[in-house]
Specification:
Chain lengths: 412, 412, 412
């Protein structure tokens, strides 16, 4: 263990430094183009969500508060730089022209893309060391942008919409990576939460809940208002339904905090795809309701059956908070596009065009999930090679393995 | 108790579901009108205040952090939907035309209206179960909008100004409801706070303090700047005075955290009515000073004499944080309108018009308080009928009665 | 002690009240000029940073959470009013005309100026009583504005740029004041942190990190976009480097939380001077890297050698978080101005003008540091005169000396 740890000690900083050096050199080719297409407060909201909201959303583990918030900051600081560069590179290779006309838009898109990484991190929370997290960040950002490019170029998904696949990609990539990690011992006392850590997690959840309309609307200048209203109402119904179902699914009819955390956000995820084509708030509300139902029934039923069978350990319930609601949202979008097309079928479009429209949308969803699963699986294999795998299972979910604890009392 | 509890178990989710179903059906009649009169960041600030600020403002109870933040989210998610619908219904019945021209304005007005419910919740914090809270939310929102309509139609209060009665209505409605609830045993160990829970409450207070200028200014497009400056300075003086008076009123000359929490906000409440007619910041500052004096002297003197006599238990000190400062603000507004009118008396207006102006303002305040007290009293009676009254007094202020606690250590 | 304390009890509230009375009277001469040059959301971000971000940034001490957040609110509420008045007075004496054209700009400038006081507070955190803090606030704000005026009038620093000296002034003023305070006993158990208090401090740090681009850009209408991008990338690199160096400098290769707190912000401080003249993000990134290196090497090496020799106790590591990075930023700005001038030397400017430009910039930095040190030293002497020095060394870092603790369990 000592030698493994020394390995870790020597490798992490140098890896990060090399990465930073590469970033800085490559940033040499990026100038500033100052024509703000994105209002600064909207960018700020997204930035706040990523750094603060997700950081504290993940603090529910008893002894993992430092790592949850700290590593989240590290990943985002590294990942946003990588994402800007990867996107610029792809843009250079493919040669689109109108993509990259605003520096603030660039950072905003990078922040939104980073959601996929942060979601994946949630699945392996407490089991991956910083070295693995950083490697995963770089690899995942690259594959996410490639998957996006495929969607945009071959499946004709509009460019901004393609970013709404973050939840889908992040959740399934994370689950595939997680399947390669050793499982923690089932009665690990450290993997539980305390009332205080749950309250910190509630703090992060409320932040995410409040800023989700900004997240969904930030990249859509043409229907920003519609996106805001739909997301707001979907979130509201989703939060209410979370309380309802939490009472119905627990044994003695009490509320379960983790249900509230995950289900309250599911509505925002589900409405992400379709928000532009929803013309009435009640459709968004029904989507929010269904997303919440999926999130809670998923976490209470499926998690018990499915995860042990597939040997997946999903620390934050990412599959039910982000994965399934995103699938639901994609299918709902498909349905709405189909219905809208069918209504207008005689007037503007013919039936074969409608069919191809629906098929490309469906194809984009399937493509994203497949790429996420395959690349996630490979990434998981690589991350668990000898040189990267330094955290013994007994030190999972433990801040003290990564952080100095000069404190006298360590009762977190 | 078991059967009562089963009653609770079966009733809460179905009540909420029915409510949601009604909401969704009614929302069918509401479309989107997209002409943003309210800047999105301002709406976001108000939303943030309601969900996050008030949620954590109420976490000062030792073992009630989950319920404070969780039920606050539930109430707001339910209440905003109801409020939008009630306002649309009243608008439809009365037939005003220019009220409802922006969807974002609609949600913002609903959020601001919800302040009254959240304030009322503060009075009965820890004593009401979720069923009672949701019933109270629906009933209070309806009565608040009716009271507003009376003010607007018969007392000629400008429409936007009428929303500034939220604090007044919320505080007195809550106190009237509270008078019907059984009192907790006076030496209930659970109704106290810990340094940590007080710090969480400070977190919420600082949020409210920072965003109060947004709250006061969000609905006033014509004098937004003035509202912001006046509120900011009133809050600053109010916070400073809170420290001064806290030292002077405690036995050994120390600061009292609860004083800081309540008095720092009193200035923002007091300036809410008059902010449009204040032309110099020093007037706002004096208002902030007086509001803080009332809040602290109220909590240290009156609470000891008045509340036991009237048998009112006011968990958060709502009467002195929101009730009395709002009365002060209303009277100050009256005075300023009177003085301004008296100066211009010869030029624009005659003396009888001035008299009627002052009387209608006074009438609006009295009308709001009376409606709040009467409807609150009735609501309190209904909420304490057999089917709704499920929480035994010994389980007051206790998260574990409502929430699953899988945690090993429950020392909050 | 009893009599000293009575002295304290009687003096604090009256001092604050007198100050408030003076403020209110003087505010009589200030009207409102409503022409918003500063967007309200940007002001709100700065306000949020000051009240909430710095408040919680300073909560890392085990038993000093109430005082950290509470006194921070008190200082800002008092200081902003003083700052507005001092600036108005100086403006009146000197007679510039275009300075004061917007009320919101006035409050924003006052908030930004208050950063210097909040930074100084960080140095003597836990050792100064509220009386000393308020005196220091008033004195420091006056001297800071005088130093700014010297810079603007005699050294031709642009007016907005002169506000970026806040970090420099605050850090060295605080250190000079601190040198006059008695040192706490080295193994004071109370001056340490707990995991929970470190997490609260992380909460504040993340707030500061997220809002720093707003802070740096709020006063620069002509190159706001550039300031935002440069600050964002400097902060990102700075955060990443903090993790790298934290591992390299600790004994067993773990991360140290205090390093992350201070180094993550150093990048934003360093880029403050030069952000307008940086044309490529990679320059900002290198500045962020260097700032982080200075902050961490400073705290791990210099603090051990330098501070005991100079008998300075720096509770928050302000010297390395704000002081040295600000010096670095100033020198980098100098270099960039020099290089840019040298490139254009034949075309627009001659060599002697370039020399004088560089010398005035250098002069401004030296002037700020000297004024800060001298006035800080004198202020420290005055604050430790008999009537103000009421806190015994054994009661340092202890909330219970200042706050009522009705809580049964006081284990913070």
């Amino acid at each position: 263990m000592a030698s493994t740890y020394r390995n870790f000690l020597t490798s992490v900083p140098w890896l990060i430094l090399c990465l930073e050096a590469v970033c800085m050199v490559l940033f040499f080719f990026l100038g500033f183009d100052i024509s703000p297409l994105i209002p600064y407060p909207a960018f700020q909201d997204v930035n706040h969500m990523m750094v603060f909201g997700f950081g504290f959303f993940l603090t529910f583990l008893k002894r993992y508060g430092f790592s949850s918030t700290g590593f989240n900051l590290l990943i985002i600081a590294v990942g946003v730089q990588c994402s800007v560069l990867v996107e610029a590179l792809l843009h250079f290779l493919i040669g689109g022209s109108s993509w990259f006309d605003d520096s603030l838009k660039r950072i905003t898109q990078a922040s939104v893309s980073m959601t996929s990484v942060v979601i994946s991190t949630g699945v392996i929370l407490g089991r991956a060391n910083p070295l693995q997290l950083i490697l995963m960040t770089v690899v995942e950002i690259i594959f996410f942008h490639i998957s996006r490019c495929i969607n945009t170029l071959y499946l004709e998904v509009p460019y901004s919409n393609s970013l709404m696949h973050v939840h889908l990609f992040g959740a399934y990539f994370g689950l595939a990576v997680s399947s390669q990690f050793p499982e923690p011992s089932p009665r690990a006392e450290k993997s539980s939460s305390t009332p205080k850590s749950d309250l910190f997690s509630m703090l992060g959840t409320l932040f995410l809940w409040v800023f989700w309309p900004s997240f969904n609307s930030v990249l859509f200048s043409n229907y920003r208002q519609t996106a805001i209203y739909n997301t707001y109402f979907a979130l509201a119904v989703s939060a209410v339904t979370a309380f309802v179902l939490s009472v119905l699914t627990t044994k003695d009819g009490k509320f379960r905090m983790t249900d509230i955390h995950s289900a309250a956000l599911a509505g925002g995820v589900a409405v992400g795809y379709a928000m532009g084509s929803i013309q009435h708030p009640w459709i968004a509300m029904i989507l929010g309701l269904l997303a919440s139902v999926i999130a809670i029934l998923g976490s209470s039923c499926l998690q018990r059956c499915l995860n042990p069978a597939l040997k997946i350990h999903d620390a934050t319930g990412v599959h039910f908070t982000f994965g399934l609601p995103a699938v639901l949202g994609g299918l709902a979008h498909l349905l709405l596009v189909g219905i809208e097309g069918w209504i207008n079928i005689s007037r503007y479009i013919n039936s074969s065009y409608l069919g191809s429209l629906v098929m490309t949308h469906l194809g984009a969803i399937c493509q994203t999930i497949s790429v996420a699963l395959v690349t996630g699986f490979i990434t998981g294999l690589i991350l668990n090679l000898r040189p990267f795998k330094t955290t013994p299972v007994s030190k999972y979910f433990d801040d003290q393995f990564y952080w100095e604890f000069p404190h006298l009392a360590v009762g977190f």
